[in-house]
Design a protein that fits this description.
This protein has one helix spanning about 1-25; strands spanning about 40-45, 50-55, 55-60, 70, 75-80, 90-95, 100-105, 110-115, 120-125, 135, 145-150, 160, 170, 180. The chain has about 190 residues and is mainly β. A hairpin with a 6-residue loop joins strand 7 (about 100-105) and strand 8.
């Protein structure tokens, strides 16, 4: 019960900080209409909030402050997720027309490509105890559905999880159980 309460409090903190940043970034004395920036895909870890703005990844202290831009690439970055130890951020990068899993340190350096597949590989999260990235892909589907996979930050030891169809998933804190959502069929 305590972990649910802490998660809820952290979620509210993320929403409040991003809301304050939206107001700060959108206020301009020269404009008569207010334009609010769209900050998407927030994640919180180790006292920082990662989010996407303008298809780049940014971080800001969870207590508020100045946001730092971590990525400046021609492609789009999405779904930043902090590693359980807070030293890495996994994200989905769309470069050269394909989405793959990438990882970088929390300061935006040492960006490495983790997956090399023509299918769409999209970051979902991290395993809480194994330091492995969870991602969804349709790489092994005979139709248009996704499955969950795990891979090390170095790109080794890919593992397909046992769920037949899954688009999102989250492991319990001990890493022994997973809650997941199936992809609805069209």
């Amino acid at each position: 019960m305590k972990s649910h309460r802490v998660s809820f409090v952290r979620f509210i903190t993320v929403v409040m900080v991003l809301s304050m940043m939206a107001v700060t970034l959108s206020s301009s004395p020269c404009r008569s209409t207010v334009q609010r920036p769209l900050m998407r895909f927030p994640d919180i870890g180790d006292g920082r909030i990662a989010f996407v703005y303008g298809d780049d990844i940014w971080t800001v202290p969870e207590d508020g402050g100045v946001a730092s831009r971590l990525t400046i690439n021609d492609g789009a970055e999405r779904y930043p997720k902090f590693s359980p130890d807070g030293t890495l951020i996994a994200f989905t990068g769309e470069y050269d027309g394909n989405a793959d899993v990438y990882v970088m340190n929390v300061y935006g350096g040492d960006i490495r490509r983790v997956t090399f597949h023509p299918g769409q590989d999209v970051v979902v999260g991290w395993h809480p105890t194994e330091n492995r990235i969870i991602f969804r892909s349709n790489r092994k589907s005979f139709s248009r559905f996704y499955r969950l996979f795990m891979i090390s930050p170095g790109g080794t030891h890919p593992e397909e999880l046992i769920m037949h169809e899954a688009v999102q998933g989250s492991f319990s804190p001990d890493g022994k159980k997973i809650a997941y959502n199936r992809v609805p069929r069209e």
